[in-house]
Give the backbone structure.
Amino acid sequence: MPVHLHGKLKIVLYGATSVGHRGSKAYATLSLAIRRVLKTDLMKIGLNGRVEWNVSMLIDVNDEVDTLDAFVKTVSRLGTKTSTVGMLFLNAHELARSGSLCGSHRMQADADDKLGSAGILKINVQYIPLRNLSFGMGVSDVYFPMRTGCKLSLFQDAHVHDKELPEILDRSEKPRLHRRAFEEMFGAMTLARKLIYIAGWSVYTELEMVRSGQKEAMQLGDFLVEKHRQGCCVVVLIWDDPTNNTALVDEGIMATSDEQTYSFFKGTGVQVAKMPRLDDGTNGFIGHMTVSGIFTHHQKIIVVDAPIPGRDDKRRILSYLGGLDLTSGRWDTPSHCLWSTLRTFHKNDFHQACLVTDQRTGPREPWHDVHCCLEGDAAWDVLQNFQDRCQCQGGKKLSLAAITEQEFIRRVDEQAVLQRDPDGWNAQIFRSIDERSAIFERGHNLITKKGRLLDASVQAAYVHHIRRAERFLYIENQYFIGSSHAWLSDPLKECTNLIPLEIVTKIVNMIKLRRDFRVYIVIPMFPEGAPESDAVQEILYWQYLTVEMMYIRIARELKVCGSSARPTDYLSFFCLGRREYPEDSKLVRRNSKAAGANHNRRFMIYLHSKMLIVDDEYIVLGSANINERSMSGTRDTEIAVGAYQPAYVSTTGAISPGGQVECFRKSLWAEHFGDGSVLLEKAETKICMEKIRFIGWRNWETYSSQEKGFVSGALLYPYEVSESGIVTPAAERFPDSRASIIGRRTMLPRLMTT
């Protein structure tokens, strides 16, 4: 029977002897069943068949295995042939008992060990079980440390109208300010004197960030050109979509407007770099095409210099990050109107990527997101990330502004000022990125893959804070796919991030302890795109397998404990949708391509957030989705921040923290669930989950009904979950479509959809 390894592994892989001919090359891998956790660089074999890798890694584990499987493979001098020359199966049960397996081990030449010895592998593996780990607010052993003396401002959607959201009071009876993301970002860029740095998956020059709904507003492209004329160093990094890199194609498959943006700024002085995802030549032709053709630069950041209140002699750094790209379709409010704003706020910004329709007919695709502004030491880390990306891929083409002590406040001085704020924050920057996309300082707790340094601290942060959670988790994310090595059917090696498995392991452990613990997860009704398309259907299938794995594990533990509770008492999924009465809009033309949505006056609210809230005291938000593309560190490039207010941390759990994280969660719930009574409940209690689920069920009934009605907010995700954890679709198809709710397998590359 497999042993459950849950905690961390410290692996040191030194090298091997007697593994091949001098002059050829060899590499090694280490796997836990199908989840590969280490792959070395390709190194030359020397005298006596000796090869050295000297790789050291500290990794999170949550795996049920009998063995840890090491393989040594050689590559011919011409690179045309790969051969397995040795394999080693370390006993996982012995590792769990003793805590370490160290030394030189005889390898086998084949799985059955019939061919005798195949050399010696020197490897040390140390197992640190969860009970022996400490979990502070900061994540250790990652690139950027926790920074004290910071300030974080949280944004709910791109804009909030006056009185659109209820007043939420913190523990000190101070109301939470509903900030306006796009207006504040535009205002910060307006006040910049030295630098405006923007990095995005997409940047749209015709974006109007400040809107009245009546008169025309200044467009982003014109504004940035004017800021350059005023003396600002303006640098824009955009992902280079490879599907429109020919003169014959104007708009790429992903509709990022990268070519139009590049052309707009040409000759204006605004520096624009179209940055492809580059390979380093270690993956061959197919690998190169995979990296450049499938993976993206996905960070969404703005860095500006800003005035210091009360001082004119120095400047400081402000950084913005989260889920909002400066592109079309992102400007929205918590009302998420489908039709009524098509002639006002969205008259120049119609976005609908799931239906074939237009502005005359609608509906538009509503957009829900979260974003933040960082001040203090952590804001400088975001600046460093931007500089490191420019230096890696921009080279001499980009000229950045000089940061001098004559013009900018010293980090330590700004930190000292912000630390005096009783409502101050501590913040830590996390990334998914490797040295093909950013330069690194050596020795900064990086891990390696194929000899390539990478920062996978976003996943490390999620795992760390899920493990330290005591009461509840609240997640909003555009995707929810992972832990594919634990799927009950169709297990995959391509999507093994630990986040779903860590969540369900936490729930199971809390059930064993008879403690209240709840997990609320909000995802889109379906991924952006035509719901019947292969890509959307396959992503939905991976999501279904992830969710099913979680519910079945919860159900098994409830049965073992003799509990009458249902799996959904502990874990529930929601999506967002809106349905309007016909009189809500004067635009009632019929469009056969979107006939169902138009006739029924409904469409999903596309949830694009990437956020985790832990116990109402800690928040992670950024650009990273819960899938392998965002979490691996070698696929899409991502950035996130984790933060908390030291003065608003509950040491006992008996009293709610009452800080800005709790206020933000309640404000989001006010938008999604509407019923103010749920804001009074403790989120970890069964009664809170029951109320939330009832609202979601009622909203889904209204949304999916054949009868006309109004609803806007959270819908119970259309899964039926049995007492044994079996997941089935709650309806045959998504409303107004022919698309399966649980998806299907396709022939698309798995790296694309995971």
